[in-house]
Amino acid sequence: METINENINFGDASATVNAAIDVLEKELTVVEEELKPRIIYAPITGKISNIYKGDGEFVRAGESIFGIESTEPKYILGYVRPPFTVKPEPGVKVQVRTRRPDRSYFASEITKVGGQIKFIERGLVRPGLNSESGLPVQIKVVHSEELKLYPGEYVDIVLDQ
């Protein structure tokens, strides 16, 4: 009994077909590599707070996969409301007071000052006001065993005169 291959004369076409198959196999290998799961390393330590993409979903470059919340604050973002009785600048000493019943506090200093006055987040606006503005400042958190701040905790800042 004859086979199909015995009746077909590929001639020079077999080399072309084999070359095309090789190219397609290499392209398939590249696609398979791209589809493999990847290990992602976070640039910060913390806990995952929001998951934006599920298992097996495709992600474009720059697209968020999940949100990470810090478990230990590194700095405090505060606002100095005008008029300024003390010029806010790096190195100015401050007292950071918690809003806890014991009103614990610690001494720190301003590390950075924003470039312009901005509207303050609604949760930080003083009672009775609809909106308020202030100059943003970054304040170093001084860690101690007695007083542990939680990320997102509201505190009061008093600039030393």
Essential attributes:
two-stranded antiparallel ribbon; 161 residues; alpha+beta; 2 helices; single chain
Structure overview:
The structure is a single chain. This protein has two helices and eight strands. A hairpin with a 6-residue loop joins strand 4 and strand 5 (105-113). The relative contact order is 0.17. Strands 3, 4, 5, 6, 7 and 8 form a six-stranded antiparallel β-sheet that branches. Strands 1-2 form a two-stranded antiparallel ribbon. The model has no long low-confidence stretch (mean pLDDT 85). It has 161 residues and is an alpha+beta fold.
How does the SSE layout of this entry go?
Elements: H1 4-7, H2 13-35, E1 47-51, E2 66-69, E3 75-80, E4 93-98, E5 105-113, E6 118-119, E7 133-140, E8 155-159
Antiparallel strand pairs: 1-2, 3-7, 4-5, 4-8, 5-7, 6-7
Helix content: 10-25%
Low-confidence stretches: none
Proportion of residues in β-strands: 25-35%
Gross morphology: elongated
So what's the oligomer here?
Answer: single chain
Tell me about the largest β-sheet: 6 strands, antiparallel
Mean of the pLDDT scores?
A: 85
Structural class based on helices, strands and sheet pairing = alpha+beta
Number of distinct beta strands: 8
Helical stretch tally: 2
What Rg, in angstroms, do the CA atoms define? 31 Å
N- to C-terminal distance: 105 Å
**What is the string of SSEs from the N terminus onward?**
HHEEEEEEEE
